[in-house]
Specification:
globular; 4-stranded antiparallel sheet; about 290 residues
């Protein structure tokens, strides 16, 4: 499951990926209660109306329009599902048009998250893969137990290009399960750790993602639900602190923004869970700022 303010009303909604049944979406009513509306808003089933075997899920703004989109990983011989938030209370399944579906078909997906691996200001997509069964041939099934993980580079037009095989050890076939991101070496780009069934975890250091500029935020106090918007001369980005790793994982609570070639951020807007707002202007890039709504 994952938290996110899908309708920009200031409270957190909940998405639950289910296995072989309709997925659930709980809209926060703002009074301590929730209403399940997954089928009505287009998130319960796939584009063709079929239920799938949901594994991992995460929110992220793939098109920088200020509305949180959603990724769901699924079982082998199914495509993962990518849903675009249309900003009117509904989602559209853009799995096919995004070019993330067909390549995911033979793989069994688990943890997933949006992240900007090259700091260009566009949210890329990571998916951890690995089958459940070691003896697929004996079971009369196709596929492999170890599988390569996938990294989709955001093309900026709601489509993605899979590039894991260009990024060193990220494409090494393993039996991946959980995954989380953090800038563990504090060099300005996002690194990853991936856990593997019956195997050692992998720490994947990002070499070269910091060639573009960046800015990062450490949110003190009750951070979950804090939303930060970063505006530069040519881009507006929105991110929230939440559970963005999809399956038995938790990434760091920092919010990391790639800024591209910009050397400063024109405007930063922070909205805290308690409703407090904060703005900063003309901020230099390549630094980590600590903010607090207390």
């Amino acid at each position: 499951m994952t938290w996110g303010d899908y309708d920009n009303d200031g409270d957190l909604d909940i998405y639950v990926a289910n296995d072989s049944t309709e997925n659930f979406f709980y809209q926060n009513n703002g009074d301590g209660t929730f209403e399940e509306i997954g089928f009505m808003i287009g998130l319960a089933v796939s584009e063709d109306g079929n239920v799938k075997n949901g594994m991992g899920t995460a929110f992220g703004d793939l098109d920088n329009d200020g509305w949180l989109d959603l990724i769901v990983t699924n079982y082998a011989d199914q495509t993962n599902a990518l849903y675009r938030n249309d900003g009117d209370g509904f989602f559209t399944d853009i799995t096919r048009m995004s070019r993330t579906g067909e390549i995911s078909f033979p793989y069994l997906g688990w943890a997933t998250f949006f992240f900007d691996y090259d700091n260009d200001g566009l949210q890329d997509l990571y998916i951890a893969n690995g089958h459940l069964h070691e003896n697929l041939a004996v079971l009369g099934q196709e596929g492999t137990y170890p599988q390569p993980d996938l990294i989709f580079k955001n093309n900026g037009d709601s489509s993605f290009t899979e590039i894991a095989n260009q990024l060193g050890d990220a494409y090494l076939p393993t039996v991946s399960r959980g995954a989380a991101w953090a800038d563990y070496d504090l060099d300005g780009d996002v690194d990853m750790v991936v856990t593997n069934s019956n195997g050692r975890p992998r720490l994947l250091r990002n070499d070269g993602g910091n060639e573009n500029h960046w800015i990062s935020f450490s949110v003190a106090g009750i951070a979950i639900g804090t939303r930060i918007t970063v505006q530069t001369s040519n881009m507006l980005q929105t991110k929230e602190v939440g559970n963005q790793s999809g399956y038995l994982s938790q990434s760091e609570k920092h919010l990391h923004f790639g800024i591209g070639s910009a050397k400063q951020v024109d405007l930063i807007t922070v909205r805290y869970p308690n409703g407090k707002m904060q703005q900063l202007s003309q901020v230099k890039t390549n630094q980590t700022l600590q903010v607090s709504g207390d």
